[in-house]
Design brief:
By secondary structure, this protein is mainly beta. It has strands spanning 7-14, 23-30, 35-39, 46-49, 58-63, 68-73, 76-81, 98-100, 131-137, 147-148, 151-156, 162-171, 177-188, 193-197, 201-202. The chain folds into 2 domains: 7-100, no CATH class; 131-209, Immunoglobulins (Immunoglobulin-like), CATH 2.60.40.10. Strand 12 (162-171) and strand 13 (177-188) form a beta hairpin.
């Protein structure tokens, strides 16, 4: 979203070419001043802010079994509602039919926005609380006396901000503990990632590699 321009998209319960029988599930409006509002389960049901002149993630969770919808913008949960309700709040269909990337904007504003990395995934359940280790960083080789700085990329895959501890353990080939260090993540927002750096580990003897 460029500063000075607006944007808009919607999801539909039902889609009909020409729009006569279409049913809007939600509408998301981006204003030219970095604010926005949502029609989902009712008009102006939620507001949000976003960073201009950069890519922002718009992430939707649609739970058809639980009849629940969640919108996250820029990594922040901005609205949760009953999915089967229409954008205006009327009873509607409990289904997902289409995404409409329309050249729209809030009233009186000029639309201009860009779309990239669009995906639709229905492979796994999004849990309320779900922390995952995405990558572990470290050296491929080092000598006795070298200081080794382990780190890990942690991602909050869930729907809530979380506070938690992360522990790194190093063992030898016989699974004998050589090192253990715990770091605290004070707050990690939903759908966000953070690199956790652990205290240095020093290889004391070559036997530690055996």
């Amino acid at each position: 979203m460029e500063a000075g321009f607006g944007g808009y998209y919607n999801l539909l319960h039902k889609y009909d070419v020409g729009g006569a029988n279409s049913e809007w599930a939600l509408e998301v409006f981006f204003s030219q001043d970095g604010t926005g509002f949502i029609n989902a389960g009712g008009s102006n049901s939620a507001t949000f802010t976003y960073t201009q002149n950069t890519w922002i993630e718009c992430y939707h969770v649609v739970d058809l079994e639980g009849d629940n919808g969640v919108i996250l913008i820029g990594g922040q949960s901005v609205h949760v509602w009953q999915w089967s309700l229409t954008a205006g709040g009327d009873p509607g269909e409990k289904q997902l039919a289409a995404l409409d990337l329309w050249a729209g904007a809030p009233s009186g504003e000029t639309p201009k926005y860009y779309i990239d990395d669009l995906s639709f995934t229905g492979l796994y359940t999004i849990f309320e609380h779900d922390i995952a280790t995405r990558q572990i960083y470290g050296e491929t080789s080092f000598n006795v006396g070298d200081s080794y700085l382990p780190s890990a990329l942690i991602k909050n895959e869930g729907l809530n901000s979380e506070s938690f501890d992360v522990t790194c353990e190093i063992v030898d080939f016989e699974n004998t503990p050589l090192y253990s260090n715990t770091q605290t993540v004070a707050v990690l927002d939903e759908r966000s990632s953070q690199t956790v750096n652990f205290d240095p580990y020093v290889l004391n003897t070559a036997d530690d590699l055996l």
